[in-house]
Structures are given as structure tokens and as C-alpha cells.
Design goal:
This protein has helices at about 10-20, 35-50. With about 50 residues, the chain is an all-alpha fold. Helix 1 (about 10-20) crosses helix 2 (about 35-50). About 10% of the residues are buried.
Length: about 50
């Protein structure tokens, strides 16, 4: 089975490579769904809930 990533940055990097998240934030308000800042925030929340 696969290992669960413990670093949220690794999760976001993997999403970037898959094309699900942009490489750079466009800094628009509100943040778009492909924003790396938003993806990092979601990854941190998800890893906190899993721990």
C-alpha cells in the first residue's frame, strides 16, 4: 500500500505535477480553485484531521 504523506507541501507539489493546481498564485480575490495557496491550506487541514 502507499505511504500517507505527512508534509502538506509534498501533497501540493504532487497536485501541481498532475496539473490540478497552478504553479503560481495569481493573487485574485477570492482565490481561484486551482490556487496553490488554497491547496496548501486545504492540505494542512486534511493532514491535521488525519493525525
Amino acid at each position: 500500500m502507499g505511504k500517507k504523506p505527512t508534509d502538506p507541501r509534498k501533497v501540493v507539489r504532487k497536485l501541481m505535477k498532475a496539473g490540478k493546481v497552478k504553479k503560481k498564485c495569481c493573487r485574485s480575490k477570492p482565490r481561484c480553485k486551482k490556487c496553490p495557496v488554497l491547496a496548501l491550506k486545504k492540505a494542512k487541514e486534511k493532514l491535521d484531521l488525519a493525525a
